[in-house]
Design goal:
- The complex is a heterotrimer of chains A (399), B (228) and C (295).
- Chain A has 13 helices and 16 strands.
- Chain A has 399 residues and is an alpha/beta fold.
- The radius of gyration of chain A is 21 Å and the shape is globular.
- Chain B has a six-stranded mixed sheet.
- In chain B, β5, α3 (113-121) and β6 form a beta-alpha-beta unit.
- In chain B, α6 packs antiparallel against α8.
- Chain C has a seven-stranded mixed sheet, sandwiched between helices.
- Chain C has one domain: Rossmann fold (3-Layer(aba) Sandwich).
- Chain C is globular.
- Chain C is of the alpha/beta class and 295 residues long.
- The chains are: A alpha/beta (399), B alpha/beta (228), C alpha/beta (295).
- The interface between A and C is large, with 44 and 46 residues.
Chain lengths: 399, 228, 295
């Protein structure tokens, strides 16, 4: 049963199932002006989602509620409110084990409450798509877009894509399913946006017709059996290795976890094809570069404009996928840079750490400017930081 | 003329500050300009400080989030100033030289000499407009205060044309719109006021037009060049 | 639907593992009126177990699997604990993910199967220990009942955390001295069956596994009512002989001693009016419940 066999057919809602590449690259698009939350609704309307589970937490509540409207309209198969993010992510797991295409959303404290589920999703090879709308984590209480939580989910075994704009959000939500469900990948994917900066901001976005839908998930292309008793109930093992302290138990766990990381790397080829590379470069031959992801890149772009007016040339490298992490791409793109600024919306600078870990001469990396607690990062602040360093007024702290 | 106009709207929860920002940005977008709008990222509480931001330009806008350096500040309620119900202190913090302050109040709000001195130095004129009174007199409800403020802004700055604004309002109030909790409740309240959507739209437009006239008349009195 | 999905292509028959061949040849998949009497006679759906010798949980497991009305269309959800050592040997699809989230996983699973296979029998059965059901997972246990999720929850109640070495659990008796209750447990055994009734379960049964006929009836009713009416709950006493200082052969007597009329595992059953009407309709149709409505 190939997924392709459904192309050209019409689903229950009357949408035409089209080749994903057609939907992504060829289908005519119309311009809309809408919030990130509305963009989520429009992407999911076209995503052939079977099950979605919701839970309220700012800033993702609006989008999660709109997916409920899609359920009432008949675009989503089933939908309900779970009792906590831990439960929601387990409910998503159950639905995915049962062969459904699953969508959910969360933010900040919800991400952490759900945390135990993410490595389990990856370990169980469940291609769930979660839209993480980052928010600060307690304490003190904070609802603003601080990206600390994102640094904490990097090694859960999920694919992690960080969208900068509403447009990327729309495209990543649909393309994410296609990459995550590839048999040689088959992993959960977190499509991340910065809460409020994208979720609550009205922006222009190009969207194809609502009469078109993504090919549905085919659970029988999974590299592990779908738990629906439609395929033989293979006994997983003769002896459960979990509690045994022997070499087989270590080796099984180690090789299974290695395979998850290998699957993340194997997602590269699909990802590059669909989202055009793991990084995006602009004037990366400049001596000074800004390297970051998400809204920090957007603010960096404005700073570059301001600096250009003063005759200072600065380039930018946007990291689109945090997992797989574009090691080689970043090494290449930054090879001529003398100074690499990493603006971030968190207090620890995890992105700077990630970059420092993969490039030579990493004393070139200037960690910052940082804002935290969800504070806005005006381009003027980035400009000031860069000028300060250039004027030698700020000592570069060598890593 | 500025390459970009940044507008900060400060008011109180329930006054339609967020709606104003989205409607204004939608109108600008309909004119083919680039625009981005967003609310202040806070909890929704009636009568608590509420803020929203609009950025409008002829080129693509990347900048997002709270507006630290606005060209225009619109104060929707005197308490923003008198009770400090504002996310930034003082309420005009960050205003760019040559910007404009638009304050909704029946009477000019007395400001300290320090405040006035700063604004004068920055060449920032103050436009006091009785938008709530206008809303009550024109639309019969203070819920149309935001329309009066939008009209005043349009008259004072010509930032968007009237037909674009009318189209944006049609988008917002003319069809099914998914708003978050508090906003949805207010939507219902205002819909109950008017028998038909057309009537609601008409009253909103009338309030905007009257606000526009007040803004245009004020603009005649100052020597600051237009923003756009 | 029987064994269609598991039958072996003739050419590959000789290279399939012997226990798989046995499953196809002599398991009770699809057999009308399958039940505990098949244990030891037909190919069982549990191959072997990694529990202590004489553990009552092992026979409880065999009864449960022998009594499922439609094992060929049943997916089980387990949790961490002694039961998770057994599930890898079970010949129906089963899911282990985390500790305590079993009723949440089952909620999502049941909805996915209902969405993907409308009009077809797809039973979901949760089987977990008392720590998973009542302590760490209580929230999700109750919420699945509030939401009227249509699956059976079975709790193997051994009144403590056995797999981690005998710590206090919510279902432990008051006063029992154990790890983490060094001065004896300070509060009463949680009354989950009553809570289940109040929380919307349509069938609730409390029993030991000393009487297989009774277990069989409870399991069948639990599955069938969950399939058609709403959530069901069965609490089975499966004493941890190791942690209460019993010998391997003493488990059965321990259960018998605990199910007297005034004992804590005296047989109790609650059936909602709706479920009673459903059972009566089954009786009236004289339709053996073992036959799947569709296949």
């Amino acid at each position: 049963m190939e997924a392709n066999s459904v192309i050209g057919t019409v689903n229950k809602k009357g949408q035409k199932i089209v080749d994903p590449e057609y939907l992504f690259f060829e289908a005519p698009r119309q311009q809309y002006f809408m919030t990130g939350s509305e963009v989520v609704r429009e992407a999911i309307r076209r995503a052939s989602v079977d099950i979605s589970v919701a839970y309220p937490i700012t800033p993702q509540s609006e989008a999660a509620a709109m997916v409920g409207d899609l359920y009432v309209e008949g675009y989503v198969g089933d939908y309900f409110r779970g009792e906590s993010e831990f439960a929601v992510m387990s409910q998503c797991a159950g639905a995915s084990f049962g062969g459904a295409r699953v969508f959910t959303t969360t933010s900040g404290p919800g991400t952490l409450r759900a945390y135990e589920n993410f490595p389990m999703w990856a370990g169980s090879r469940l291609p769930i798509l979660i839209n993480v709308m980052v928010r600060g984590i307690n304490s003190p209480l904070n609802i603003q877009p601080d990206t600390l939580e994102l640094g904490m989910i990097l090694d859960t075994g999920m694919l992690i894509w960080h969208a900068e704009t509403a447009q990327e959000l729309f495209d990543y939500l649909l393309k994410g399913y296609i990459v995550a469900e590839e048999p040689d990948v088959h992993l959960p994917i977190a499509v991340v946006i910065d809460g409020f900066f994208v979720s609550h901001t009205k922006d222009m976005v190009m969207i194809p017709s609502a009469d078109l839908a993504l090919t549905p998930y085919n659970p029988y292309r999974s590299p592990v059996p779908c738990m629906d008793m439609e395929v033989p109930p293979v006994r997983m093992m003769r002896d459960p290795f979990v509690m045994k302290s022997n070499y087989i138990s270590y080796a099984t766990h180690a090789s299974w976890q290695q395979e998850i990381r290998a699957a993340i790397e194997r997602s590269r080829k699909h990802t590059i094809r669909l989202i055009g590379g793991l990084i995006e470069e602009e004037n990366s031959d400049a001596d000074i570069l800004i390297v970051s992801s998400g809204t920090a890149v957007a603010q960096g772009r404005e700073a570059i404009r301001l600096l250009a007016e003063e005759g200072i040339r600065v380039g930018i490298v946007k990291v689109k996928t945090l997992r797989p992490f574009p090691h080689e791409e970043i090494r290449q793109a930054t090879k001529n840079a003398k100074l690499i600024f990493v603006p971030e919306f968190n207090v620890v600078g995890w992105m700077a750490r990630e970059i420092k870990a993969v490039i030579p001469d990493n004393h070139r990396v200037i960690e910052g400017p940082h804002v935290a607690g969800g504070m806005t990062l005006p381009p003027e602040v980035i400009v000031e930081e860069i000028k300060k360093v250039l004027a030698g007024k700020k000592e570069v702290v060598h890593g | 003329m500025r390459k970009r106009v940044n507008i900060r709207m400060s008011g109180l929860g329930g006054q339609g500050v967020v709606t104003s920002a989205h409607v204004l940005a939608t109108a600008a977008s309909k004119e083919g300009k680039h625009a981005i709008s967003n609310p202040f990222f806070g909890a929704e509480k009636r009568m608590a400080p509420a803020e929203s931001y609009v950025r409008i330009a002829g080129e693509r806008i990347y900048d997002r989030g709270e507006l630290v350096y606005p060209d225009v500040i619109m104060v929707f309620h005197p308490q923003v100033i008198t009770l400090g119900k504002c996310y930034t202190m003082p309420f005009y913090s960050g205003i760019k030289a040559g910007g404009i302050l638009i304050i909704n109040s029946d009477e000019p709000i007395p400001l300290s000499d320090d405040d006035l001195g700063f604004l004068e130095k920055q060449n920032v004129p103050i436009f006091t407009v009785a938008a709530t009174t206008l809303a009550v007199e024109t639309a019969g409800t203070e819920l149309a205060t935001n329309m009066g403020m939008l009209g005043a802004l349009m008259g004072a700055t010509r930032i968007v044309a009237m037909d674009a604004m009318e189209a944006a309002l049609q988008d917002r109030f003319g069809k099914k719109y998914v708003a978050s909790g508090g906003t949805a409740t207010l939507d219902e309240a205002i819909k109950k006021k008017f028998a038909k959507k057309e009537q609601l739209l008409a009253k909103n437009m009338e309030t905007i037009r009257k606000g526009f006239d007040l803004g245009a008349a004020w603009a005649e009195t100052i020597k600051t060049p237009m923003l756009v | 639907m029987g064994k269609e999905k598991i039958k072996i292509c003739e050419e590959f028959y000789d290279i399939m593992p012997p226990e798989y061949r046995e499953l196809v040849d002599s398991s009770t998949y699809g057999k009308e009126g399958r039940g505990w009497k098949d244990v030891g006679v037909a190919k069982e759906l549990i191959e072997e177990h990694s529990l202590c010798a004489g553990c009552p949980e092992s026979i409880a497991f065999r009864y449960v699997l022998a009594c499922l009305p439609n094992p060929e269309d049943t997916v089980m959800v387990g949790s961490t604990g002694c039961t998770s050592l057994v599930f890898p040997h079970v010949a129906v699809h089963n899911i282990h993910s985390l500790f305590g989230n079993q009723n949440a996983v089952a909620s999502g699973l049941k909805r996915a199967l209902a969405h993907r296979f409308p009009g077809k029998v797809k039973d979901v059965v949760v089987l977990a220990g008392d720590g998973a059901t009542v302590d760490i997972g209580l929230d999700m246990t109750l919420q699945s009942w509030f939401r009227q999720e249509k699956f059976l929850t079975i709790c193997f109640d051994n009144e403590l955390y056995a797999n981690t070495g005998g710590q206090e659990s919510g279902l432990m008796q008051k006063g029992f001295v154990s790890k983490m209750a060094p001065a004896g447990k300070k509060f009463d055994k949680v009354r989950l069956p009553e809570i289940a009734e109040e929380s919307g379960c349509h069938y609730v049964a409390t029993l030991t596994v000393s009487k297989p006929n009774r277990v069989e009836k409870a399991i069948r009713q639990g599955v069938l009512i969950a399939r058609e009416v709403g959530p069901t709950y069965i609490q089975l006493y499966t004493p941890c002989i190791l942690e209460i200082g019993k010998q391997a052969m003493e488990g059965l007597q321990e259960m018998r001693d605990s199910e007297g009329p005034n004992e804590r595992f005296a047989f109790k059953e609650y059936i909602s009016e709706e479920a009673k009407a459903y059972l009566a309709s089954l009786e009236k149709e004289k339709k053996p419940a073992a036959i799947p409505t569709q296949g």
